[in-house]
Amino acid sequence: MARRDLSSRGSPTRRSLLGSLGAVAAVGTAGVVGLAGAEPAPVRLVLAVANGGWDPTFTVDPKPGWTSGGPYPDLDPRDAEDVEEIVAYGQIDVSSNRVRRPAVDRYFDAHLARTAVVNGLWVPSLSHWDAMVHVLTGTGSYHAPDIGVLAGVGGASLDRLAAIDLSGLGRFGDHAPRCMRVGERDQLAELLGPGERWSPSGSDQAAIDAYLAGRALEEGDVERLVALGHLAALRSRADVVAGALPSGRRTAFADNVPVVLSLLAEDLCRAVIVSTGPSWDTHARGSFQHGHWDKTFAGLHALLDGLTAAGMLETTLVVVVSELGRSPYRNRLGGTDHWTFTSAVLAGAGVAGGVRVGGTDGDLVAIGTDPETGRPSASAGPITTASFAAGVLDAVGVDPAGVFPGVAPLRAFRG
Amino acid sequence: VTVSIAIALLACSGGPPEPIGPLVRASMSVRGVRPSLDEIEAVRADPARLEDIVVGWFDDPRFGETVRDMHAEQMLMRIDTRDHLRPLGPLAAFSEAEITASLDEEPLRMIERIVTEGRPYTEIVTGGTAMASAITSAAHGLSWGGPTRGLSWGGPTQGLSHSSSGPEWQESTWSDGRPTAGILSSTSLWQRHMSSNVNLHRSRANFVLSELLCQPFPPGNVISRPEPEPGQGDALTENPGCAGCHQTLDPLASVFYGFRDYVLPSDNAQAEERGCPPEGAWACTPLTFWDPELVGLRELEGMPPPALFGEPVSDLADLGRKIAARPEFAACTARRFAGWLGQVPPEDVPEEDVERLVDALVAADWDARALVLAVVLDPEFSSPGFAAREPLRVRPEQLARMIEDLTGWRWTDVVGGYGQVDLLNTDGHGYRMLAGGVNGWDSVQPVHAPTASRELVLARVAEQAAAHAVDTGLWPPGGVVTGRREVRRALEHLSLRVTGREVDTEALEALFEGALERSGSAEHAWKVTITALLLDPAAERY
């Protein structure tokens, strides 16, 4: 077999891991958690994913008067309250319907000062999976880490998990040893619990850990050593983790909010990837978008409230994205198909309240946008996923240049 | 000091200090189990024996499991987190767990049969048969001749060509008139890769392009300003940004007219509960998934005549033949096998390797076992540098087989109201994704690296397997010994069996002695020691 260049994949991670390994080895795997490494990125990240492709014309990118797409064909003419109106929240025009999507207005009424919107975000694919890769990673590579993971890694620090993925959608790339999933029904919490099976005593476990750390070093298995260290840390805080993960299947964004808040408050990780709930892929029934938007903004509202109450809003950036928008062409089933331009909602740390960045024209095609100022620019193209991802990293204090060389980070949503 | 030196050496060398044996890597790759002591001894005595040993493994049922694992991961077929048909009507005798597992496996069993029998791999798209179990028989209408376990209808047992005492999975045929083209005729495959009234089978066309021909959508397909105005005209043909893809995709999608878009479990449940009235009979089991009348919808829905890369296609069987004849199919097959075995994406397999592997495949009349052999016997396969991720990490499905082979223990559970589940092969109730696998739906890329959640799964597996091995008297060999010499001898034996290497057992001996001193129980000390051994880096990798 031909050999391949490994430098583009494993080496950077390996080097970064090796940088802190000496102290790790000296104290065994459990020592990883107590390691005083480089300072993590100052800002935490919550990456909320609206899986399936949302239709921003229902809320943050309104197209009044459309009859082919958007929410308007679904209005009930017999209900005087069932009306769509455009409400301006700062620079953000919001399509408002206080019958079908009351949570949207409630959210902006409460948290406009910490919320910005990006419209006309160009995702260069119409396939869910490819588009998800683009929007989460800012690249077209299935093997790249997502922005939650990159934000969580935040430098060379090994002292905590970079990211916990509650959604199953997270992409770890080369940072897998510093990331963790929890399972469809929080199986992680089950596994951490004592159970009725035989298990080693605490002293035995420490001896096993020491044996494995020594053997991982002998084998040069740095990734394993790091993952073992994080497991030791989890074990030492099993009660906390179990408390944060109420075993069971969570299907709504709001159900995940307390979990997200617990994970961050307990400092179990620097980034959380979470789903906003059921699939948005409303090919057949566009009207389902009403409920999805309502529940998503209700969840976002609860999250912002919780972060505020916990004193974490100033140090946590919340990013809500969907891999696709939805076409302006209403199909024969009353739904809409995939569209290559979508939107994002950003809230919390460093966000300029009431700012709208980018935009789309009447055909839902992105307007060229200067990533620094957010103003329309004839010479600039649409906002790319790379620019968006770089902007998010920049906002949480991670230098994006190493991951996205030559890409102008989208900074226009920053305060 | 020793640790610091080790780190310094590691930082300088940039790689593991010693290679992992070709025998271990081949055995784990082909079967998902560690080589036996006899096999280790044979290769030690004569390294040239390796090829004969590997060829012998092709008759091992675990090679068939490996083939299914590979195709399940690549074709995203194991989706137990999604709803499946419920135990209603003809399926009432089965548990949800059984139904889910059986329906997902249908096309995988076909591929397994073709590969393990050495039939041309092209049969996966040209074969005239399918694989049936009692469940797929009842659900999809395939003939089947095994025990019926309370089947209350006559469908699947009519006109059988098999004995009633046959194996669980049997080769069978579709009897509803659908063209036969291997897995392309599979109801399970197209239930997984479903279509809709607006998708118009494009998802299925995309499956063929990406999974069988390694020709995914062109990346970066740009939608420029829609022309004509929104709500008018057809952007898919009139907008250059759209047409680029759809000119390839749509004619291929047209081949799949005749298949239903999908039958949701809720459709089936409603139909069964209503007693299968004529207007809803299509959703009753066995599902009417192929309906010749649906073929005519193509023109009504404005789709182009069926074609593959511009070459007209008469029907599904013709498509299968044309796919098999494409050079992309051979190259894609080589990429998929080499990529999966080496834990790298298919597109990362170097072109020169692909060419050589295609030559080996074609020279063997498309016997995919030759392809596997060519990969695992390649000297580079067992050296750092073959895989982007070096070394290879045990997949969850392999872990299940490896542990069962070593200790006799398999991690299963009975979930109330659902049935018995294989916990390392499922996600809804199990731990496959936590251990690095995929759930086939929203998690579609395996993680070939240690993570905290994977370590936790490994630890729980090791503990329970160790306890089982000691409690059943399987390990340590010779009984629960405590004497220093006996302990060392037992550990040398176990280390060789678990890791495939002769390792210095000093650290394990110390672990045993410490556990014995703390607990006063030899059984407990052995469980602790064997747990550590099963978690050893040399056991977790290959």
Describe the structure.
The complex is a heterodimer of chains A (415) and B (542). By secondary structure, chain A is α/β, with parallel strands linked by helices. Chain A has helices spanning 10-19, 21-27, 102-111, 128-137, 147-153, 187-192, 202-219, 222-236, 238-244, 253-265, 288-309, 385-395, and strands spanning 44-50, 85-89, 92-96, 115-122, 161-165, 179-181, 269-275, 316-322, 325-330, 336-339, 341-348, 355-358, 383-384. Chain A is built from 12 helices and 13 strands. The longest helix of chain A has 22 residues, at 288-309. Mean pLDDT of chain A is 87; it is low at 3-38. In chain A, strands 1, 4, 5, 6, 7, 8, 11, 12 and 13 form a 9-stranded mixed beta sheet that branches. In chain A, strands 2-3 form a two-stranded antiparallel sheet. A two-stranded antiparallel ribbon of chain B has the order 1-2. In chain B, strands 3-4 form a two-stranded antiparallel sheet. A two-stranded antiparallel sheet of chain B has the order 5-6. Mean pLDDT of chain B is 88; it is low at 1-19, 150-165 and 219-232. Helices cover 48% and strands 3% of the residues of chain B. Chain B is built from 24 helices and 6 strands. Chain B is globular, with a radius of gyration of 26 Å. In chain B, helix 10 (202-212) crosses helix 12 (240-254), helix 16 (327-342) crosses helix 18 (368-376) and helix 20 (452-471) packs across helix 23. Chain B has helices spanning 2-13, 22-30, 37-45, 50-57, 61-75, 96-116, 123-126, 134-140, 187-192, 202-212, 235-238, 240-254, 265-273, 297-300, 316-325, 327-342, 351-363, 368-376, 396-407, 452-471, 484-499, 506-519, 522-535, 537-540; strands at 130-132, 170-172, 307-308, 311-312, 412-415, 419-422. Chain B is mainly alpha-helical and 542 residues long. Chains A and B meet through helix 1, helix 2, strand 6, helix 6 and helix 7 of A and helix 1, helix 20, helix 22, helix 23 and helix 24 of B.
